[in-house]
Every structure is written in structure tokens, then in C-alpha cells.
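User: I've been trying to design a sequence by hand for this structure and keep getting stuck. Would you show me what you'd pick, starting by listing the structure so we're on the same page?

Assistant: Good idea, let's start from the same input. This is the structure you sent:
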């Protein structure tokens, strides 16, 4: 291809013209690809954040999985979202276990009272 600015012939894969330093069409394309990749990482981080409410364990795994990638790519927006997802997942898991503990306690007392009731009927009969 030819440089749009100076008209000199340059390689088809050249990002900038070696003659004048002008950016070629490849430069713009690469920038767009990088931006798309970055926004998809932010998308995955948001997904982790949403999952941290619905399915905390998945949110935690996804947040921990994407955080190092985001940091490696200097995508601080995604990294912050991942950290938020990890924190919220831990919080959600805590709440979930707390609720489960109470629900199980209630079920246990119910089973005990039902067994006691059956036991009483049995002993009254015989
Ligand atoms: Zn040029």
C-alpha cells in the first residue's frame, strides 16, 4: 500500500509509515481491536459482579480468574470491577451461609418436634 500522507510505498502490514511516521489504516484497526478486547474484559467483569449476587461461588471464581488478566492488560476499570465482584461474592456467601444456618436450625427443630409428637402418640397408644 501507499502512505496517505507522503505517498511512499510501504508494507501492507505497516502500522506507521517508516518515511514520515504517519499512522496507516492498520494503526486505526489495531486500536479498535484492542479497545474491543478491553471492553469485553469489562463486560466479563460486570458479569462476575452480577453473578456475585445470583451465584456467589461463580462470581468469586470468575472475579479471581479475570482480575490477573485485567491487571496484566492494564485494564484498571475491569480490575476494579473484578475486585468488587470478589468482595461482593465473599459477602454474598457469608449472608448465604448465615441464612442457611438459620433455615437448617428451623428444619432441625421441626423434625425434632414432629418426632416428639409421633413418639408421644406411640407411647399413649401402647
Ligand atoms: Zn508517509
Amino acid at each position: 500500500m501507499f502512505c496517505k500522507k507522503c505517498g511512499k510505498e510501504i508494507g501492507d502490514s505497516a502500522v506507521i509509515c517508516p518515511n514520515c511516521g504517519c499512522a496507516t489504516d492498520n494503526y486505526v484497526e489495531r486500536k479498535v481491536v484492542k479497545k474491543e478486547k478491553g471492553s469485553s474484559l469489562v463486560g466479563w467483569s460486570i458479569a462476575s459482579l452480577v453473578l456475585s449476587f445470583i451465584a456467589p461461588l461463580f462470581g468469586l471464581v470468575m472475579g479471581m480468574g479475570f482480575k490477573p488478566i485485567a491487571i496484566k492488560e492494564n485494564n484498571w476499570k475491569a480490575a476494579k470491577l473484578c475486585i468488587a465482584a470478589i468482595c461482593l461474592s465473599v459477602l454474598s456467601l457469608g449472608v448465604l451461609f448465615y441464612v442457611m444456618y438459620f433455615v437448617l436450625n428451623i428444619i432441625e427443630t421441626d423434625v425434632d418436634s414432629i418426632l416428639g409428637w409421633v413418639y408421644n402418640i406411640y407411647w399413649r397408644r401402647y
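That's my pick for every position. To get oriented when you compare it with your attempt: Residues 45 and 82 are 5 Å apart (CA to CA). The mean pLDDT is 86.
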